[in-house]
Amino acid sequence: MPLVIAAIRLAALQKLASIFIFSHDSLAVGEDGPTHQPVEQLETLRTTPGIDVYRPADQNETLAAWKAIAKTTNRPTALVTSRQKLPVLRETKDAPVERGAYIVSSAKKDLPDAILIASGSELHLALEAKRELEKEGYDLSVVSMPSMEAFQRQSEEYQASVLPKQVVNRLSIEMASSLAWGRYTGIFGKNLAVDTFGKSGKANDVIDDYGFNLAHISRMVKKMIDENKNLQIVK
Description:
Blueprint: H1 2-14, E1 19-22, H2 41-46, E2 52-54, H3 59-70, E3 77-80, E4 102-105, E5 114-118, H4 123-134, E6 140-144, H5 148-152, H6 156-162, E7 170-173, H7 182-185, E8 190-192, H8 203-209, H9 214-227
Parallel strand pairs: 1-3, 2-3, 5-6, 5-7, 7-8
Antiparallel strand pairs: 4-6
Helix pairs in contact: 4-9
């Protein structure tokens, strides 16, 4: 990994349109254990200046990411894919991945009760969580964020349309370090992340042990909404 990072850093310094492909991107590596579960590598890539990082959620977003990469001429790109089988989501068809983030499932109201923000393999879990919480009367939107770097290049108006400033109830969902997510969840939001090394075990058991399941996400969202219910938000 150090040699790869050195190559990426040099490519970024020289503004070379190189493509670096990473896989096996999360706790879902399972039995290979903490030595093989790259909980810190996404943040290593994201904190390297001058590189775009794309972590697509499914086949649709992967294709869209490749199209964005093909247009990139002045910086390197890292494409980060998952090991496990993932569903192809109907919501990601014709997804504007080149914009870095977009609303993949809208709330019914103009301002949702909360926003779920996810990347990669966790997007389908966020969509499932929204459907479950809707049964209890909560109105949520789900944002897919395959590339933070691309999103930061968008206009303030676009960023605000995806993440309205008035909505402070925001939960990020990603099986990696929480370091970069505070920019998007804010001081009143929450991050479902992995800030320790992983564990060895069956992939589904490890994922569940770290709280990446519907029950835990539902509890986090409800608690967050309850904690913030008396906040006075300046529009």
